[in-house]
Design brief:
Order of helices and strands: HEHEHEHEHEHE
Shape: elongated
Helix content: 25-40%
Radius of gyration: 21 Å
Largest sheet: 3 strands, parallel
């Protein structure tokens, strides 16, 4: 598929995988066979920490790191963890997710504010901290959480029902 795409567009695009998963492995194989020139991949948590993997290690880490030009973890802490493994540490460059700071926008406490969070609900994601913060909000707010592979959703929903009446929570 990738080789056909390169031939069809007539140039090689930047290949980017959002996780070090099967796509990063496929790109590593293509690079090792000189079918593509370069690629980068981001890592976000489950593909960083060995203890979050079945068997306690990240499969194909060395092979993927060898063939990519850049490994992009989502935090300094994650970058430090990966650098300590001493597997191509010069390729590890942290970049935060998000956008640049546009400053504080207009805000009216009388209008309903919308807050959206997205991610798997699990202890390491610390979703419960959103609920702790929302307990201190004194204006109308709708919090919508979008997520999959939810491990402790019942606990989070129970906690959200204790929020003040000006806070509405939705889970999708």
């Amino acid at each position: 598929f990738i080789k056909e795409y390169i031939l069809r567009i007539g140039q090689e695009p930047l290949f980017y995988s959002f996780w070090m998963n099967y796509w990063a492995l496929a790109l590593s194989i293509l690079k090792s066979e000189s079918e593509i020139k370069d690629f980068v991949f981001r890592c976000n948590g489950i593909d960083i920490y060995d203890e979050r993997q079945l068997g306690g290690y990240m499969p194909f880490r060395k092979f993927n790191y060898e063939h990519t030009s850049k490994v992009i973890p989502n935090s300094i802490t994650s970058a430090d963890y990966l650098i300590a493994k001493n597997i191509f540490p010069d390729k590890i460059v942290p970049y935060y997710l998000g956008t640049r700071d546009f400053g504080i926008g207009p805000f009216n406490k009388k209008e309903t504010f919308s807050l959206v969070s997205c991610g798997r609900i699990s202890p390491e994601k610390r979703t419960h901290l959103i609920i702790e913060i929302l307990q201190h909000i004194d204006f109308p707010l709708i919090w919508t959480h979008i997520g999959g592979k939810i491990s402790n959703l019942d606990s989070i929903i129970s906690q959200s029902k204790l929020l003040p009446s000006n806070i509405e929570s939705k889970f999708t």
